[in-house]
Amino acid sequence: MRFGLDAAAAVYVAGPVLVVRDWVQRLAGLRTSVLAVVAGTALSYLAAGPAIATASAVSFAVSELLDAAAYSLVVRRRGLVVAVFCSGIVGVVVDSLLFPAIAFASLTLTPGHLLGKAYGVLAGTIATAVIRRLP
Asked: What is the band of 6 on the pLDDT scale with cuts at 50, 70, 90?
């Protein structure tokens, strides 16, 4: 991680996952998006030991569902690109606070998680803007 911050390796995947959830909601609807969050939560829980699994499942479910709510509110008012960015930041903040607090009873990793996930949301937002401009 840069700037002297520490973060788990999966941090770089979390930001883009939030953007992908927005696209699933846009293309397949909120119901399909929520079903994908439920499936992702279950897979998240099954993939690791108890402390990490619980932290991962809880932070994934809460951050993704709040991302979905933020996306739904913002997309109608500001459009797709702004909605992807804003909802992604909501998800990043929630996930970055919940995961380390639950997994490690500490927020020491939160700054690194925020930065690493924000990179992914920014990249996904830029990709969304570029895709929207394609013929």
From this structure: confident
Cα torsion 112, 113, 115, 120 to 10°: value is: 140
The full 3-state SS of the chain, as one line of letters, equals: CCCCCCCCCCHHHHHHHHHHHHHHHHHHCHHHHHHHHHHHHHHHHHCCCHHHHHHHHHHHHHHHHHHHHHHHHHHHHHCHHHHHHHHHHHHHHHHHHHHHHHHHCCCCCHHHHHHHHHHHHHHHHHHHHHHHHCC
User: How far is it, in rounded angstroms, from Cα 42 to Cα 80?
Assistant: 28
Indicate the pTM of the whole model.
0.85
Q: What is the pLDDT of residue 45?
A: 83
Instruction: Give residue 26's identity as a one-letter amino acid code.
Output: R
Asked if residues 22 and 71 have their Cβ atoms less than 8 Å apart, the reply is yes
**What is the torsional sign of CA 20, 38, 25, 76?**
negative
* Alpha-carbon distances of 127 from 4, 84, 88, 100, rounded to whole Å: 28, 10, 13, 29
Residue 102 tokens read as 């639950």
